[in-house]
Each structure stands twice: as C-alpha cells, then as structure tokens.
Amino acid sequence: MSFNRKTLIIALTGSALAMPAQGAEADADAAAGRDDIIVLGEQMRATPNAGKSDIPLIETPQAISIISTEQLKARGVVRLAEALRGVAGVSRSSTYGYYDAYQIRGFDAAYGSIYLDGLISQNVAGSNNELAGLEQIEVVKGPASMLFGSAPLGGIVNLVSKRPRDDDFVDLGLATGSYDLVEGTIDANMRLDAAGTLLARLNLVYRDSNDFVRFADKNRVHIAPALTWRMGEDSELTLLTRYERNHDSPWSPVSAWGTVLPSAHGKLPIDFTINGKDSKAIHNQRYYHLGYAFKHRFSDAFSFDQTLRYTDRKVSWNDWIFWAGFVDGAVVDGVQQGHVAGRYVYGPFSQRDKDLSTDGHFTLKVETGPIRQEILVGLDYRRNRSRFADHGGNFDPAANPLDILAPDYSPPFIHDPAAAYGGGGKSNQTGLYIQDHVRFGERATLTLGGRYDWAKSDGGVKDHKFSPRVGATYAIVPGASLYASWSKSFVPQAGYFTVAGDALPPETGRNIETGVKLQTPDSRLTGMVSIFELTRQNVATEDPANPFFYITAGEQRSRGVEVEATWRPTPAWTLSIAYAYLDAKITRDNVLPVGARLQNVPRHNINLFGEYVVPRGPFAGFGLNLAFQYNSDKVGANFPEDVDGDGAPDPIAAFTLPSYALVDAGLSYRFGPWGVRLNVNNLFDKRYFPDACCVDRVTPGEPRNWRLSLTRSF
User: Which of 457, 548, 477, 468 lies closest to 509 in space, CA to CA?
Assistant: First the structure.
C-alpha cells in the first residue's frame, strides 16, 4: 500500500468529516433516524424488487430473505459472501478461494445467480461485489426461472442499488482496521430543483488494504451516480450508472495436506502463500454500467416498468499461482511426506465482455367482487459478447516448484508460450413470462405463472424451455400465513457435447416446498419456516463409454428445513436467528459416488445475532452486538482423485472439512450527527477452513480481524 495514497485519502475524508454544516445539529436527528432500508419488523410487508410486482413477502409463495444495510453496518460486513451468513440455507462454496462464493440450499450458486436491480450481472471468473452502494440484498430461494429465465436451482441473489430520494443529505465515512485498511465513503443525495422533479445521488468508495495471506492486497475505486427525473405524477425515469476499478494481488487456496489432512511436516500457517513476492499475482478488473429504470402508471390499475443496463467489463490476471500436488509426493499410512509443492501458473490472461440486459413488464390489477387479481406480463432479453486471450501460463507442476519448508519466493515464474490460446463467444436469451396473483378475500391467495425461454450460445447451440410456478398462501391468523409452492428451473449446458457432437439439453430442476411466514401485529416478531425438496436433473456426467464426452445421467437432491426469525422485544433490542438443516446428496451419476453428500454443504448451519442500543440516559446511543456462527462438518470434495500415485482413486480424496464455530463482536456509539463503530470478527481467532474444491484447493478462514469506522451525517 502506498503511503502517499493512505495520507491523501485520510486527509481528504478527514477534512470532510470535520467540515461544519449549516444546520448540522438541527438535521442530526433526522439523519440518525433515516431508514436506509426496510425496518426489520416490516420485512414481511415489504415488496422485494426481485418479485417484479407489488406483492408483499407474506403473500409471496416462495422463501425470500432481505438483508438491510443497517444489518451490514452493525456486523461490519463489506463482502457479499459474509453478508449472506445470516440467511438460512446459504453456505460457502469454492471459487478460487478469493471471490464471493456461496451455495443456496445445497447447490452451488457462485455463477449465474447475481442480479443487480433485477438484471443478470455476469463475470468471467468471479467477483467481490461492492455493498456500499446498495439499498438491500434480496435472496430468492429455490427456482427463480419463472421470472428470470436461466438460473441456478438453489436460488438467486438480487442486489438493489441506492436510488435518489426526496431529502437532502451527505453521509461521510472513514474506516481503518486489520491489514492496513484505509477506506473512505461518501453517500450524497440532493434535490436539484425546488419542485423535487430532479433528484441526484452519488456513492463513492475508496478502499485499500493488504490481506491475511502474505503478499496479497487489494485496491478499489467505486463510483455510482444516479439521477431521477419525475416527468409528472405518473412517470419516473432513474438513470443508474456505475464505474468500478479493482487492482488486486489475490491469494490462492492451499493444499488439504497440512490443513485438513495430515502432513509429516505439520500444519501450514494460515497466512501461507504459494504466490510470488517479487512477481506478485495480479488481478485487475474494470467495468462500467449504464442503465435506467423507468415506470409509468396509466391508471391506478395499469402500469408499465422497464429496466435496461449496458455493461463494458475488462478483466486480466497474471502470475496467479495455484497448488498442483507435490513434486516429491508420497502418501504413507494416510500422511503426506512430500514438501515440494507443484504449482500452476495462470496468465497472462485478459478478457473483455459487453453485456446488454433489459426487462419490461405490464401490471394489471382487476377486482371482481371479493376476488382481486394482479396480472404481470413481461419480456426480458440478455446478450453477452466476449473476447479473450491467454498468452501462456504453465501447467507443468514441476516447472515452478516451491519448497514449503524453505520457500523461496524470488525466482520469476516460467511461462509456456506454446500454451497460448484465444477466442471469443456470444450468447443471448429471450424470455416471455406471465403471472397471475389472485386474492380471495382477505385470507387466501393463489399464484400461477409460466415463462418460455429461447437461449442461444456459441456454435449455434439453441435451447428452449418452459418454466412454471404454482403457489398459494393462506392467512391462518392476522400476520401468520401458510404457503406452498411448486416450481421448476433450467440452466443451458453450453460446452458439453455428446459423442455424436450434439449439445446436451439444459439442466433442469424441480422444487416443492411449504412453510409459514409470520409477522405479529406490533411487528416485533417476524419469521419464516420452510420445508423443501429440490431435485437437480439432467446433470452433465462423463460418458463411461466415451471419455471427454458427456451424457445427462446425473441427478442430485437436497431436502431441508430453514428457520429465520427476528425479535425486537423492545426498540433497544434486536435478536435474530437463521438455522438450516440440509440433506444434500448425489442420487445418480456415472463418476461421482452415488449416495455421497454434496461438497461444502453442512448438515447444520446456525447463525445468531443480538444487538442492544441504550435508548436513553447518559449512555444513550451506545450499542453492543454479538454474533455466533456454527457450521457442522462438510464433505470437501466429491470428485474421485488418485492422491498416492497408484493410478486408482483414493477414499481419502473425499476428505472432510471439520466443523467450526465463530464469534464476532461489535461496539457502537451514535452522538448527534456522528457515529463510531468497532467490529471484531473471529473474536477467538479460530483456525478453520470454510470450503474446498479438491485436495489442491482448500480455502483458509480469515483469522481474528478488526474494523473501526467513523461516520458523519449532514
């Protein structure tokens, strides 16, 4: 980290924090009381953006969790993967260890599940999504294909951008913490004219830090301007733009030997790296979004909404190193004797993507006596164009070895120009959907929906699929509703071909679930209990008669129970729980062991959070919070591997990631327009490994770390 950059950001943000503001004291209470997101107790009455309608959560026959910005602030969370910890049924998955990666209801959702303002947000390898510019995070569990088309069976995550508002304010933030963290944030909103027809909002983030793994660091600039034009009483247009630039030196996962499997040389340090010091790993990203959200009300009963976004994205990496067994490997009685790690060199690689996504839908509300209908008809379209080039990494494990007992990080890496490749790709998807949400009096609702998609990818591969959903809710008492639903999903399997040269048909999924949603009349208790069964079908598996070709013979199933609840016994207390029991297993496959648990899925996952803020007296505004997370053990890998070199798969390759429990703590104090917050994560410095891909890729868990933030509201 550059000293000059640190000094500059501290000086600029510190000066802004100290500036007097006209009427600052008078505006302090309004700023402090401003809701950045739905009040926790009101969540069941909220209408999530991911629903594309005005149907409140308590009438939606699907499990949807909303994470507020206040919850993120209270926990000191800046990464999506950590934000999702408080959602029942969500656990970590493996995407190079470095990116945001998670599973929903037992199925990997790291790719193709991120939506921004209801439109797909794609990335070539992965991403660490910025949370500072968000109003809320919505987790839609189970199939979402009826509204969104191609999507993972487990669910999707919709990120909702901050929009301009009617009030004028400026929120400034400064943070420091572990790994030489320096962070500055600005969230500014203002009316551009007296009538309030033009509103503007700007979110800025600068963040620079090292990391808990040696030689790793990250630097981000994030700029998100938004402008709203109220054309009249019935029309509104909001321009949504983003620019983000990331310059990172990422870390890499490590071997299972010395972490969760025994090594003759003891445990690997949690900060151990196989990346270089002089030739540091480089991972750069740059993207910008240009888009809008438009809505027009023809009448109280008929309206139109449309969103559109164009994205230009560049990503590149070089000298990013990954473990590749042991050059001198020898397993004796289940213990690895080798100490010279083989290494793969990734890069130089670069890719540029250009995406266009749009969704438009009409909503019609009809009343016929006691029956009220809300009919949704929409069309969406997404398109991706990409070009990429790899100038030659090196996938000979012995070409760039590293002795873990006496690591020498100085030699430059040897690349293999003969391994260079390049190309491009394009894909598009068009979907037509219709949904009818029918209310029968004040208690019962029925939701019927269907969508037909046409998808096309490289090589002229075409897929088309119908995705239905049927659901119902019934209010047993005011504020408590039973719900049930049945739905299906699909995902095209581009790149998988049969021996005859035909593309595989899409992977499909089926979900059946029931549960209860709760919100007491005083909104002090809200919650949801869900019971479900997801079946993933048409899973690509290797053709046993024709290696390197595939057939759709795989099937996986996940059954589970989820419990989420938030209780506010008094305005000063907030208590929440998220618990999931998951039985996720392989039910049919040609390669993976049938009956085995799916990797990275804990049977039991529990998250507890409690916060108390002193409401009055000399300590008014002082807050304390505690969080607890427990994950039971997980299967670290499903794919059979030969780890001892005898040419046969070894049972030890299906290793176990041990269970772990983490405790986080936080202190806060709000005084007038000022706020200060200290968060300490992994308070007891637990050594743990949350996810894995295989024997050569186990993700280390972050050790104890802290974050101190100061905010000023004008």
Answer: 468
Average pLDDT over residues 448-474: 91
- Collapsing DSSP to helix, strand or coil, 9 comes out as helix
Please tell me the distance from the alpha carbon of residue 271 to that of residue 213, in angstroms, as a whole number: 4
- CA dist 188 to 25, 418, 495, Å? 18, 51, 45
Query: Is residue 78 within 8 Å of 134, Cβ to Cβ?
Result: no
Confidence of residue 126 (pLDDT cuts 50, 70, 90): low
Token couple for 313: 């994205």
Alpha-carbon gap, residue 361 to 433, rounded angstroms: 9
Q: What share of the chain is helix, strand, coil (3-state, %, to 5)?
A: 10, 55, 35
CA distance 194 to 299: 27
CA distance 691 to 263: 19
d(Cα 703, Cα 687) in Å, to the nearest integer?
7
Query: Hey, what are 614's tokens?
Result: 């002193």
- Give the predicted TM-score (pTM) of the model: 0.90
Inter-residue contact 554 to 590 (CB < 8 Å): yes
Distance of alpha carbon 207 from the chain centroid:
19
Distance CA 431, CA 52 (A): 14
The first and second tokens of residue 474, run together, are: 């019934």
Domains of the chain plus CATH, in order, are: 49-178+185-713 (2.40.170.20)
For 203-262, how does the pLDDT look when each residue is reduced to its tens digit (9 = 90+)?
Answer: 999 999 999 999 999 999 999 999 999 998 999 999 999 999 999 999 999 999 999 999
Sign of the CA dihedral 48, 51, 53, 54?
negative
Do residues 430 and 413 lie in contact, with contact meaning Cβ atoms separated by under 8 Å? no
Nearest partner of 605 among 574, 584, 620, 575, judged by Cα: 584
Do 250 and 281 meet the contact criterion of CB atoms below 8 Å apart?
Answer: yes
Nearest to 509 by CA among 556, 548, 551, 472: 556
Of 46, 43, 174, 154, nearest in space to 106 by CA: 154
Alpha carbon distances (Å) from 116 to 112, 291, 361, 423, 634: 12, 11, 17, 28, 31
pLDDT digits (tens, 9 = 90+) for 626-660: 999 999 999 999 888 888 777 788 888 889 999 99
Nearest-angstrom CA–CA distance, 381 and 393: 36
User: From edge to edge, which strands make up the β-sheet containing 340-346?
Assistant: 320-326, 340-346, 402-403
Dump the DSSP string for 450-505. Answer: EEEEEEEEGGGEEEEEEEEEEEEEEEEETTEEEEEEEEEEEE--TT-B-TTSPBPP
Task: Single out the residue of 145, 182, 161, 402 nearest to residue 272, CA to CA.
Answer: 402
Query: Distance (Å, rounded) from C-alpha 479 to C-alpha 518?
Result: 6
Q: What confidence category does residue 81 fall into, taking pLDDT thresholds of 50, 70 and 90?
A: confident
**In this structure, are residues 53 and 538 in contact, taking their beta carbons and an 8 Å threshold?**
no
